[in-house]
């Protein structure tokens, strides 16, 4: 009796790509993106209905504060990316130093926000000063909350790194936190021109 | 699949690029803030900056396709609405 044999050529393994950090963090980042997409929709609906308020609004707020915050967000994002790169290269001490630098730079963001709000209030810019300022506070305060979570996360990763929890081969926690901070940076890079640049 | 980066030099270039783009947007806002075409360059700058952060810092090009698409879609949203504003806005 002849055995019938059949040959099924195996399909080449599909490259599915890696998950930077952890799945859980990417669920969180996706939720953050959805949340801010809705907030940007609020911005655009308000801008469409009150074009005059959105033309005059950016002239009243402190552009320098917005620019400094942008530099702080971008630079802390760069430092944390360097921390991940150093960890991958096996240099734990350098990775630790980059992370400390990222935390110090990131702390400048809430500090600058504190001065900005003080400046705003001294110039009569509060939440009910007009539709532009209501949306401005709504979006920037929400972003500040997300940034504060990120800074707390950085401190936790620093503690873990100090106890040698990460290695060149396994540093998912550091990479997950870095991904969150970069996502928060991207959101600020959208908020900045909408409120401080575009009149 | 792209290998994760362990070098600092591409990150430095991305960071400097982001700072230059921030400066460009400030100069544009200062000189032409009220121009009706301003949403177009602002949309382009937002998209380029977002793409630089996602490509160099998040390394989304080598990430799982779903992650890459989520990041790409989010980065495109605000610039796309700004372009609509430039074309049909009041």
Description:
The complex is a heterodimer of chains A (199) and B (90). By secondary structure, chain A is mainly α. Chain A has a single domain, classed as Cytochrome c oxidase, subunit III, four-helix bundle (Four Helix Bundle (Hemerythrin (Met), subunit A), Up-down Bundle), CATH 1.20.120.80. Chain A is 76% helix and 0% strand. The mean pLDDT of chain A is 92. Chain B is mainly alpha-helical. Chain B has one domain. Chain B is 76% helix and 0% strand. Chain B is built from three helices and no strands. The N and C termini of chain B lie far apart (45 Å). The model of chain B has no long low-confidence stretch (mean pLDDT 92).
What's the quick description here?
The complex is a heterodimer of chains A (199) and B (90). In chain A, 76% of the residues lie in helices and 0% in strands. Chain A has helices spanning 23-49, 51-60, 63-88, 92-122, 131-162, 172-197.
């Amino acid at each position: 009796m002849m055995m019938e044999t059949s040959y099924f050529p195996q399909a080449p393994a599909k490259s599915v790509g890696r998950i930077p950090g952890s799945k859980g963090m990417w669920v969180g980042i996706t939720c953050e993106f959805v949340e801010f997409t809705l907030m940007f929709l609020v911005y655009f609906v308000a801008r469409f209905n009150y074009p005059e308020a959105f033309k005059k609004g950016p002239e009243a707020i402190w552009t320098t504060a917005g620019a400094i915050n942008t530099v702080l967000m971008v630079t802390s994002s760069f430092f944390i990316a360097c921390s991940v790169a150093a960890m991958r290269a096996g240099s734990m001490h350098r990775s630790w130093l980059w992370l400390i630098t990222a935390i110090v730079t990131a702390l400048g963001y809430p500090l600058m926000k504190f001065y900005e709000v003080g400046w705003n209030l001294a110039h009569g810019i509060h939440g009910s000063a007009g539709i532009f300022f209501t949306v401005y506070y709504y979006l920037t305060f929400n972003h500040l909350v997300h940034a504060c979570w990120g800074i707390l996360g950085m401190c936790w990763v620093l503690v873990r790194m100090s106890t040698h929890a990460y290695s060149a081969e396994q540093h998912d926690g550091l990479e997950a936190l870095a991904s969150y901070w970069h996502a928060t940076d991207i959101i600020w890079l959208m908020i900045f021109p909408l409120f401080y640049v575009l009149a | 699949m792209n290998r994760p980066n362990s070098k600092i030099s591409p990150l430095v270039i991305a960071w400097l690029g982001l700072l230059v783009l921030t400066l460009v947007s400030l100069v544009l806002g200062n000189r032409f803030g009220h121009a009706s075409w301003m949403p177009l360059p602002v949309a382009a700058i937002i998209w380029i900056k977002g793409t630089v952060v996602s490509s160099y810092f998040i390394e989304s090009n080598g990430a799982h396709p779903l992650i890459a698409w989520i990041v790409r879609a989010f980065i495109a949203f605000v610039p796309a609405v700004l372009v609509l504003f430039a074309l049909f806005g009041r």
